[in-house]
Specification:
The complex is a heterodimer of chains A (about 70) and B (about 210).
Chain A: E1 2-8, H1 13-24, E2 29-35, E3 42-47, H2 52-61, E4 66-68
Antiparallel strand pairs in A: 1-3, 1-4, 2-3
Chain B: H1 3-8, H2 16-33, H3 40-47, H4 51-57, H5 61-81, H6 90-107, H7 109-118, H8 124-131, H9 135-148, H10 157-177, H11 190-204
Helix pairs in contact in B: 2-3, 2-7, 5-6, 5-7, 5-8, 6-7, 6-10, 6-11, 10-11
Classes of the chains: A alpha+beta (about 70), B mainly alpha (about 210).
């Protein structure tokens, strides 16, 4: 399993819901959560593949900022 | 999936040393800034790691507090139960409890203080649920046995606990702050502990 961590601007409940629908229907994603309390609105994804770039592009296409948080 | 996509991203791996450092620093920060003043960003900075790395171990602040709280609580309960049996005579069992609790506290001051502070937060309940296991039934049996053997007088649970353990924790808290009442310097010693315990045992006799 891979843990992928991103900085986003997913802040409101509506945004959370919208992104949630995308992630929930993704076949490779096991679980995810967004830490809305954090300044970086960190998105944490547990995925069966190391598909960071694909997740970034999916979320970007929905109109939100999403970039990988460096190690 | 495209092989380029797969290779372009680094794998995130867990590192036990790093995890240990994160726990230590988190406890320090909680004690210093309180639970409201704590943030994942502050913790990452204190550990000199990126916030991204921190999220490998924990999903958010609540998850971190719960996980560390459960781990600390479990360690403490195990230490408390070492060499103790609910069938011991009351005086011997309570002495063992005092010895176990105080030696754990003295050896793990920061973790103990962190756990004490947790008790007055909404995290306390889910943590206790996770760790109490056999602890409560064993302590209950110890008290019931002692009452049946006429070694302990029957009291409400709160009165019993206040007398049986309150004085010990007062001494331990004096030790943490380095002073007792009126700023008098104080360091925990077995002599004061046994002196106090003797009075506690006297008070609890039927």
């Amino acid at each position: 399993m891979h843990i992928l961590i991103f900085r986003t601007n997913i802040e409101t409940d509506d945004a959370h819901k919208e992104v949630g629908q995308l992630l929930n229907s993704h076949p490779l994603i096991i679980d995810w959560n967004i830490d809305k309390e954090d300044i970086d609105k960190v998105l944490r994804v547990q995925s069966t593949a190391n598909n960071s770039l694909e997740i970034i592009s999916t979320i970007n296409q929905a109109g939100f900022m999403c970039e990988e948080l460096p190690d | 999936m495209n092989i380029h996509l797969y290779l372009s991203s680094k794998m995130r791996t867990r590192d036990n040393q790093k995890e240990l450092l994160v726990k230590q620093k988190a406890i320090e920060l909680f004690i210093r800034d309180g639970f409201d003043g704590f943030s994942m960003q502050k913790l990452a900075k204190a550990c000199d790691i990126s916030v991204g790395t921190l999220y490998i171990y924990y999903t958010n602040k609540d998850d971190l507090i719960l996980k560390i709280g459960i781990e600390e609580g479990q360690r403490m309960m195990e230490a408390t139960m070492k060499g103790f049996s609910p069938d011991m005579p009351f005086a011997e069992g309570l002495k063992k409890q005092w010895e176990n609790r105080s030696s754990y506290w003295i050896k793990n001051k920061e973790a103990s203080l962190f756990y004490e502070n947790l008790k007055h937060t909404p995290y306390a309940e889910p943590i206790l649920k996770e760790i109490s296991g056999n602890f409560r039934p064993i302590m209950k049996k110890f008290v019931e046995n002692a009452i049946a053997k006429k070694e302990l007088q029957y009291l409400s649970f709160e009165s019993y606990w206040c007398v049986a353990f309150g004085p010990l924790y007062t001494l331990l808290k004096f030790d943490i702050s380095g002073k007792s009442v009126g700023n008098k310097p104080y360091k925990f010693s077995k002599t004061t502990m046994y002196q106090t315990l003797e009075l506690v045992l006297k008070a609890l006799k039927p």
